[in-house]
Structures
1.
Amino acid sequence: MIELSKAEFEVMEALWQGHPAKSSEIIERLSDDTQWHDKTIKTLLGRLVKKQAVNFEKQGRLYQYSPTIGREDYTLKQSKNLIQRFFSGRIAPLVSGFAKTEQLSQQDINELKAVIKEWEDQQGK
Amino acid sequence: MIELSKAEFEVMEALWQGHPAKSSEIIERLSDDTQWHDKTIKTLLGRLVKKQAVNFEKQGRLYQYSPTIGREDYTLKQSKNLIQRFFSGRIAPLVSGFAKTEQLSQQDINELKAVIKEWEDQQGK
DNA sequence: TCATTTTGACTACAAATGTAATCTTAAAAT
DNA sequence: ATTTTAAGATTACATTTGTAGTCAAAATGA
C-alpha cells in the first residue's frame, strides 16, 4: 500500500481538488494553507511520482499531474489501519471516545443511524 | 502533544500491559509480537524517555519504567487528529466507510446505539 | 577471584521526511 | 538577440525513525 507522509498528503489534497493540474496550479492551491516554498512543493510532487501516487503527462514542456489513488480509498485504508492498531479493529470504542469530547451534528447522528439500519437489515435477511 | 513512531508505540503497548516494568520484562513481552533485538528495544525506551512518554525510577542499578501518558488519551488524540485531517472532523463518514467493508459485531452496534441515545437525551434536555 | 553476562549509556548508519537551493533548458520579456 | 524567468531535474542538509553495535560498570557464575 502506498504510504504518504503528512506533507505529501497535503499535496495530494491540492491535487484531489482538481486534476490534471500543472505544478503552478498545485502551488497556487497550497498557498492558501501553507507557507511552503514552491521548490518544496516540487520536491514533494517528485516524491509522489516516485511513489506512484501521482503520474503526469507532458503537455509540451509542462507536466499535467494526476493522482493515481483516490482520496476515499486512501483515507479509509489509513483509518482502518489506525482502528486496527489502536482499537483491535473495532470502531465503537473510537466512536464513543470521540463522542465524549467532540460535537456531533444531527447529520452525523443520521448517518450513524443509517449505518445501524443497514446492518440490522442485513442481519434479518 | 507527544508524538510516537510506530515502533515506539509498540513499546508503549508492552509497557501499558503492566507497569512499572524492568526493561527485561518489556523485552520479554515484545518477544511475542516482534523479532526486535533487545538493543533495539533499549534504544526505543531511551527515545520514549527523551520524549517524556516514559519515565523511570532506579531500583539499585536497574530501572523501573512507567508510561507518563495513558493509552486511552493517546489513541483518542491520534484518532481525532486523523478524523480532522481526513474527514474535516466528522466521524460519520469514517463510520459509514468502515461499515461498508468491515464486519460490525452486535456489540459494536449496541455501543453505537448508546452513543446516539446519549446524544439525543442531551438534545432533549 | 577472574571470566562472563547483563544493564544502561553512547555511537552508528541507512532510509524517510521536511524544507529548500542549484543547475539546465526552454520560454517570455525587453 | 540578449536577459530574465519559470519548470523540471538534481543535489543538499538536518531531523526522525528503524534497527542495531560498542563500551563501561556491576552482578553473577565457575
2.
Amino acid sequence: MGGTEPAEARPEIDRRRLPPEERQQQIVDEAVRFFAEVGLDGKTRELARRLGVTQSLIFKYFETKQDLIEAVYGRVYLERISPDWPTLICDRSRPIGERMSIFYRDYGSRIFDHDWMRIFMFSGLAGAELNKRYLTHLSKTLLEPLLKEIRVAASSPSEPTLEDLWSLHGGIVYLGIRQHIYRMPTPEDPQHEIDRAIGRFLGSFDVEGP
Amino acid sequence: MGGTEPAEARPEIDRRRLPPEERQQQIVDEAVRFFAEVGLDGKTRELARRLGVTQSLIFKYFETKQDLIEAVYGRVYLERISPDWPTLICDRSRPIGERMSIFYRDYGSRIFDHDWMRIFMFSGLAGAELNKRYLTHLSKTLLEPLLKEIRVAASSPSEPTLEDLWSLHGGIVYLGIRQHIYRMPTPEDPQHEIDRAIGRFLGSFDVEGP
DNA sequence: CGCTTTAATGATCGATCGATGAACAAGATC
DNA sequence: GATCTTGTTCATCGATCGATCATTAAAGCG
C-alpha cells in the first residue's frame, strides 16, 4: 500500500500568518472546546499546543487569560436563547401542550450541548455573574410568560406556580447534566422523555399534553 | 468599656502539636469547605493559611494533593445515602405518596448541602469515577425499587418508566443546583415544592400523592 | 529537671504558571 | 526582487505551584 506522499499529512491547520480576525476567532473556538473539557483553570500553553501555535501568540490577541475567558463566555452564551420563543409561547392559535413541546425541543437542541453545558457549569461554580443573568432572563422572558399561558389554558381550580415550572424545567435540564457533566447513559430520544414530562405536568392541571 | 484581657482572644485553633488523627481530621474538614468553595484546583498554601498551619504540614498527613482530594471525596460521600431508605421505600403499610415524601425529605436534607453539592459537581466535571458509582447505586438501590412500588400502587393503564422517575428526581435535585451552584434564590420551603412535584407525578399515574 | 519522641516549622527545590518584549519571517506592494 | 508591514516565534521574566528535608520546639516520662 502507500505510494501517496505522507508529507504534510496533518489535517490540522499548519498555515501561518492568518488574518487577525480569523486567528482570534480560531483561538476562541478552540478555547471553548478546551475550557469545556478541562475547566477554566486550563493552561494557556496546553491551549496553544492544541492550536498548533506558540503560547505567546494567544496574548497578542487577548491581554489576559481572563479576557480570553470572557470571550469564551460571549461566544458560548450567544444564540443560546432564541428571540422567537416569546412569540411561540404566546401563540394561542396552538394548544399549550404543542407550544411547550416545540419550545423545549428547540431549547434542548440548543443547550444539550457538551461545550455549553460544561462551561455553563464551570462558570456557575466560579460565581460568574452571567449565569445569574441568564437564569433571571430565562425566568422573566420565558418561564413567567409560559406560566401565564398555562394558567389561561388551565381549567383546573389549582393553578401552577413558577416553582412548579422550575421543577419541570429542572427535570428536563437534568437530562443534559446526566449526559455531559456526569457522563452517564441517557435516553436515545430525549424529546420523548421531555414530552412525557410536559404531559404529566399539564395533566396535573387538567390541560391536555402534547 | 474593656477591662477584659484581649490576649488570646482568637477563637481560632492556635494550639499546636495536635494528636495525628485529630490534625488529619481537621485538615480534611477544612479541605472539604475549601475545595467546595474554590474548586479542586485550590492551592495547598491557601488551605494551610485557613488552617493556621504551614503548607508543608499538609504533606506530612497526605503524600500528595490527590490523596487529600480522595480523602475529601471519602468524607463528603460518607453517610450521604441512608441504609434505611430501601426499607422505607418497600414498606407497603404506608401509601406510596407518603413513602416518597419522607424519602425525598430525608434525601433533600442530606444533599441540599453547600459543600456536598459543589464538590459533587466539581468531581463530576473532573470525571471522577465516584460520581458514576454514586448515581448507579442511587438508580439500582433506590429509584428502581421506587419505580416498582409505584407500579404496584398504580391502577393506571400507563405505567411510569425509570426515565420518568429520573425526570422527577432531576426536578428535585435542580432545587439544590439553583441554590448552591448558581446561587439563585430558592423557595423557603423546598419540601412543599417537592411534595407538589411528587403529587403531580403520582397523579399522572392515578395514584394519590402525599 | 534532663531526656526522648515527634508534631510542626522554615527554607528551598524543580516545574510550571501567566505575561512580556525582542527577533524573525510570511505576505503584500511597487 | 527589494522593501515594508505585521503576524508569529523565541527567549525569558517574576510569581507561584506541589513537594522535600533539615531544623525546631512542644508534650510525655523517668
3.
Amino acid sequence: MARYWLLKSEPFKYSWDDLNAEGEGTWDGVRNHRAKNNLQAMEVGDQAFFYHSREGLEIVGICEVSEAGLTDPTDETGKWAAVKVVPKTKLPNPVTLKQIKAEPALEDCELVRQSRLSVAEIKPEEWSVIMSLAGVN
DNA sequence: GCCAACGTTGGC
DNA sequence: GCCAACGTTGGC
C-alpha cells in the first residue's frame, strides 16, 4: 500500500512551478538522517505533498514518486538518498502551516513536531484531513 | 562517550 | 533580521 510524504522546498531554490516546468524533479541534497530514512522508505507510486518553506509556508501541490531508491547524485560519498517525483495535482486551496497547526487532528504530524525535517511522513488519516482542507475530494 | 560551542534551518 | 530548535563537531 502506498504511503504518504511531505517534501519541503524553499521556493526561491526549487518551487512547485519549477517542478512543473521540468516535468520531473530529483529530490536530492538532503543531509539529515531522518529525512534520508524517509527518502529510502519511499516507493514508486507513493504520493507526496509539496510544501513551500520560508516563503509561502503552505502545501501547494501533490506529486508522485516516479523513481525510488536512488543515490544522491550531488553527494560523492554515496551515503545519501534521493528519489524522483512528477507533479500530479495543484491544490485548489493551498493549505497553510497556520491551518495545519490549528487543526487538532494534525498536531502530531512530523511537520509540526519536527519543523526542520525536510522530508516528513504523513499518515493516511492526516493525508485525508489535509486533502479536505485543500478542497480535494 | 559526554557535552559545550558552533552552524544551519525555518517560522515569525 | 532575529532567534529557537536541532544537528554536528571537537575538546576533554
